[in-house]
Amino acid sequence: MSATARKSAPLPDDIMAMKGGTPIVSLTAYTTPMAAAMDAHCDFVLVGDSVGMVLHGLPSTLGVTMEMMILHGQAVARGLSTAMMVVDMPFGSYEESPEQAFRNAARIMAETGAAAVKLEGGVHMAETTAFLAARGIPVMAHIGLTPQSINTLGGYKVQGRDAAAEQVMRDASAVSDAGAFAVVLEKVPAALADRITETVATPTIGIGASAGCDGQILVVDDMLGLFTAFKPKFVKRYATLGDDIDKAIASYADEVRSRAFPAPEHIFAEKAPSK
């Protein structure tokens, strides 16, 4: 579905205007049916590079490509009519230079109909954020734990404790000043997240941060209990669909092997001969 066909969806400026008001609701989505299910409930939907781990079985987000993000962005767009869509820029698609970031962000927006892109990084990505924003590409920033940098961060650790808090604070101020319309705070101490939320003009979107953030986001497969390889502390499971799916498939397998399925109501009889 094109951006034109989704006129009722909010724009980045609308998300920016929600700062300090009713909390912003967001989830990740990677497929059309899941996007359609959350469309009426979310202010924006993120096509996250977590798709690499959740749907493609990759060990991290580092192997996700532009082609994967565009394919899943197009699928999600078909399921949305009222929520804004943001698409993650994958590892290696924006770090080299602002010009590289612009080319790839412009391609993502043109080929998916996304209203904005998200990229990871604070102070060192402020120049790129400003470059994109000045050229008509709204940017959602992502600081704290940045999964594309796990090899330099030493794993999926909480970021911003003790003396490291000031660096995260500088990151938040830098991307806000550079023109990001929102900033994701991942896995940072609650007190620091509250301080950032109170200090910067940009709305904060928490994931493992604080209830005081301007909004929240979770990976949908985590909160539905579909992705069960591991469960971060910050995830609340609102359903256990993975267990339900396992039971359903086991029942199907049992019925096939016992020839209970297909039953008469599931098969087609010969058509009665005409008289």
Rg, Å, rounded: 21 Å
CATH superfamily: Phosphoenolpyruvate-binding domains
Which architecture per CATH? Alpha-Beta Barrel
Helix content: 25-40%
CATH topology: TIM Barrel
Short structural description:
The chain is an alpha/beta fold. The protein contains 11 helices and 8 strands.
Q: What does this protein look like?
A:
- The protein has helices at residues 12-16, 32-38, 51-54, 66-77, 98-112, 126-134, 150-153, 165-178, 190-199, 220-223, 241-257; strands spanning 24-28, 44-47, 84-88, 116-120, 139-144, 182-186, 204-207, 215-218.
- It has 275 residues and is α/β, with parallel strands linked by helices.
- It has one domain (4-257): TIM Barrel, CATH 3.20.20.
- Helix 2 packs across helix 4 (66-77), helix 4 runs parallel beside helix 5 and helix 5 (98-112) crosses helix 6 (126-134).
- Residues 1-7 have low confidence and may be disordered.
Secondary structure layout:
Blueprint: H1 12-16, E1 24-28, H2 32-38, E2 44-47, H3 51-54, H4 66-77, E3 84-88, H5 98-112, E4 116-120, H6 126-134, E5 139-144, H7 150-153, H8 165-178, E6 182-186, H9 190-199, E7 204-207, E8 215-218, H10 220-223, H11 241-257
Parallel strand pairs: 1-2, 1-8, 2-3, 3-4, 4-5, 5-6, 6-7, 7-8
